[in-house]
């Protein structure tokens, strides 16, 4: 298989303004999860597994906790916007994490964290699209144990529209699929309803309620006591006198009542044979005689769509005790498939595998009726009583023989079977319609996603731009911008990683003039505000570099009122000498600025530097004009802590940011309460200042 297996290119090329990119270039480095087993403890760090996401939804209340927590839990803690992909089992199934309890992800999941500004929702849609599934299927074909790894996942090719178009696609898909998903959710509830319905039918059958009208119409039917006498006589004749023993007496539930004419018996009392399977594991062959496993068992039905075989010799050995016959009941007595009864169909010859028994009711009784009894809540509740709390649940042969079962008159048994099967047929018909409806919903979902990634679902950004007479950023420019920002972030991380408290730096030529232009632009607007001074200017310079993405070659430190860079003192000195602005100590606290005679020179130079980011700078200045000094400090601090996580390749949770500020910044930051930091995080989201991992990492 060639290495380009995973291309999901669009026929006739991508739409205008689109591009193609590897999934790995749109996400931070894919990460495997934490390796540990799960426990059923009620408290602790939750462990999200492949089985938890296989349905496409997560019931967090059912997610278990880690048996052993990682030494550094933050390395694996999930945050909103994370996407986890199953690499084994339900290969390729993905889940977009929303609000969730504190949890890590297991080793058979791969975490993807889309880089800013790519929406996580867009990547999540791609991971459900036909193109993605074609790639997963192609990769898994021919592999004994289907799987996908992080490397292959990262190299999948994603059709990428311009950013604004990505957001429109997400909105349109969510709108179109809202009703489909609602229908799918309603359909998903039906199997559980039908399961309860079938159990209600069986409960009515076993209690006599199902045929109360029939008994009223047939008052002269011979009672079950006569039937049991006949069965007992048959039993005595078939046993040698010296070996004969009476069947186990029944012990019915205390609250169980039977109609007049019915009786109780033990399962042994109504069965001519109750035979356990051979205990040796059968030696399987590629062809030969049929040997059933408990995986073939379904309540009331033996599924022979996937079967295993044994040789003639093994078959003969396994039927020595009793040759299975059509209408014999097979019953699972051990393992995960426990307490399920089905019947051997006509025309089928088989031997038993493991973990099962064969039950053959007396000819005078209905085998089908007793199959239904074994699948009813009457017996299932007894099974739970016998196996509850055991690590390896199983039923002893003696316990099964002692099951208390109802014995209706023989004609009523057949009437019960007729009514049960008529009602079950109705349930089966509904189930088939639900399956068909679910398949239609799935096909519609895939059709919508296919159109979305062909560029046919919403107007393209190129079309809208022409119609509105404006320019737009094509996907190629977006990808170039992301690449440049990631390279800059990588260099910043490398600089921080180097041994030594702070790397030496030589500011680029003319950088002070660039810094002064930004400072002058802010000072002209804000100098007459009573709270504007050195602290707020520092925060504006930081946000210019880390939010606007304008490189000022500044290295901000985690000081008490940080982010702070001592270079501001050189800037203030140069500005005073050049007549741009002067710095004055306040009578109370801090420093303020006064525009100089030549400040317009620097303000004019700010225009080309800000370029298309001028509107965003003006928005920042408008906000700072209304902020007190401490509010500006908190805003910049939260932004910096959040941005540092992104530069390190990790999408933080709110708890991560709070902990980073209060524990890993400066002791002075402890004055910011957790709730206040959380409110600031929400404000940043509301005001659309979410960090993108741009600029340089702050240093301690």
Task: Describe the overall structure.
- It is a single chain.
- By secondary structure, the protein is α+β, with helices and mostly antiparallel strands.
- Among the domains are: 144 residues, DNA methylase specificity domains (Adenine-n6-DNA-methyltransferase TaqI, Chain A, domain 2, Alpha-Beta Complex); 161 residues, DNA methylase specificity domains (Adenine-n6-DNA-methyltransferase TaqI, Chain A, domain 2), CATH 3.90.220.20; 176 residues, no CATH class.
- 45% of the residues lie in helices and 12% in strands.
- The protein is built from 24 helices and 24 strands.
- A four-stranded antiparallel beta sheet has the order 2-9-6-7, covered by helices on one side.
- Helix 17 crosses helix 20.
- The longest helix is centred in the first third of the chain and has 45 residues.
- It is elongated, with a radius of gyration of 36 Å.
- It starts with 18 loop residues before the first strand and ends in a 14-residue tail after the last helix.
- The relative contact order is 0.09.
Topology, pairings included?
Blueprint: E1 19-22, H1 23-26, E2 31-32, E3 38-39, E4 46-48, H2 50-53, E5 65-66, E6 83-86, E7 94-96, E8 103-105, E9 109-112, H3 120-126, H4 130-140, H5 150-154, E10 157-160, H6 163-207, H7 212-217, H8 224-238, E11 263-266, H9 267-270, E12 271-276, E13 284-285, E14 289-292, E15 297-298, E16 301-302, E17 308-310, H10 312-318, E18 329-332, E19 341-343, E20 351-352, E21 356-361, H11 367-374, H12 377-387, H13 397-401, E22 404-407, H14 410-452, H15 461-468, H16 475-497, H17 511-526, H18 534-546, H19 567-578, E23 581-585, E24 591-595, H20 599-610, H21 614-625, H22 629-647, H23 654-664, H24 674-686
Parallel strand pairs: 4-8, 14-20
Antiparallel strand pairs: 1-10, 2-9, 3-5, 6-7, 6-9, 11-22, 12-21, 13-17, 14-17, 15-16, 18-19, 18-21, 23-24
